[in-house]
């Protein structure tokens, strides 16, 4: 089957995929694989395949924001991908989860618009518990320091705010750890289409106004956290493959 937006063929696709926003990050992840090969680079969607510890997987970029990312997730699942792990970045709500920390998201508050067009408002955006367990186990094994927290994240469409206020304060009070822009789409589309998904995020700043500082996602601390989450996601996929 040909998937016209990603411009890939299902015959070339393995059942495991790491997904990330940035096409350059997709290439950097694939550079850690054996026998890596780029299959397509269409719009923001860059698809590479390779092997990690004998497990074939794809690495695919989905761009910024839920609608575009959902197109990617839908086509990957149509192509036969059954396990998707997002490796991304997020803004933290809490002083004890500073830039350079990692957040494993087991569920997302659906504050974006895309999933409202797919499912009723009561439908949860939840990860697969097996993937979360694999990410946590891998996080305990992969060397490196820094905070690793598991919890709920919130997914918005707006990166820059307008005149409307986003409900940051309420979500922070309710215990949400961090903010990003694609996990609701990933979890809802995966649930709907019978795939399983999880996500690990590197904190690149604070999303809470009280903690806010100049936004600079290009620091060594963030780069190290991104490296670490990539290692964790690859190890999690190896663990999941071993257990099947
Ligand atoms: O999910 C968010 C979005 O893809 C995290 O970083 C991007 C915006 O810079």
UniProtKB/TrEMBL annotation:
InterPro entries: Nucleoside_phosphorylase_d, Nucleoside_phosphorylase_sf. It comes from Paenibacillus residui. Coiled coil: none annotated. This is Uridine phosphorylase. It comes from the Bacteria. Its EC number is 2.4.2.3. It is an enzyme of class 2 (transferase). It catalyses: uridine + phosphate = alpha-D-ribose 1-phosphate + uracil. It holds the Pfam family PNP_UDP_1. Residues 15-237 form the Nucleoside phosphorylase domain.
